[in-house]
Design brief:
Elements: H1 3-35, H2 38-42, E1 45-53, E2 56-59, H3 60-69, H4 71-79, E3 81-85, E4 89-93, E5 96-109, E6 112-127, E7 135-144, H5 149-160
Parallel strand pairs: 1-7
Antiparallel strand pairs: 1-2, 3-5, 4-5, 5-6, 6-7
């Protein structure tokens, strides 16, 4: 194998490892938040990371952990629920990445579950030294998949690997 071939193979392997680490990070959110593990959930984000979900804008790990500890969230998990994030499409560019997936919140009802919501999820991530898997969320934007242009744009931007401006989507 030539040096250029070896270098190409190393780049491709690094991309696959990065994509897999990001997929694992995103897949960890549901089990962590459903377990009520506020600190581990918040640790998925950078120190100053943002979680922008419909009418709730959380800035930093403390606010994200407070959401997990909130009476509303605790009511969900003690009654029975599952936050499921589907497979993510990941685009890595150097030390930044964009990922997109859809999510479903199922809430226990009687002996079964009902779909409480379906969401579009856009992630902007950064490579962070010392972070498990080497990546953390800089910003996650979640919007209800209600047919609006805003939720569809999150999906399109995520698939295209476009970095969205660092400002909330709503005016």
């Amino acid at each position: 194998m030539t040096e250029p071939q070896l270098a190409d193979l190393q780049r491709r392997l690094q991309r696959i490892e990065d994509e897999r680490a990001i997929e694992r990070l995103i897949a960890s959110y549901g089990p962590l938040v459903d377990a009520g593990d506020a600190e581990s959930t918040a640790a998925l984000w950078c120190e100053d990371g943002v979680y922008d979900v419909e009418d709730w804008l959380m800035n930093g790990r403390e606010e994200i952990a407070a959401m997990v500890r909130s009476p509303g969230h605790q009511g969900l998990i003690t009654h029975g629920c599952t936050h499921f994030l589907g497979p993510a499409v990941v685009t890595v560019t150097g030390d930044e990445a964009i990922a997109v997936c859809e999510s479903t919140l199922l809430v226990k009802q009687g002996s079964g579950f009902r779909v409480a919501r379906g969401g579009a999820n856009y992630f902007h991530l950064s490579r962070v030294a010392g972070a498990p898997g080497g990546w953390q969320i800089r910003r996650r934007i979640t919007r209800l998949l209600d047919g609006t242009a805003e939720s569809r744009a999150l999906l399109s931007d995520g698939i295209a690997g476009r970095i969205r401006p660092d400002r909330p989507l709503r005016g």
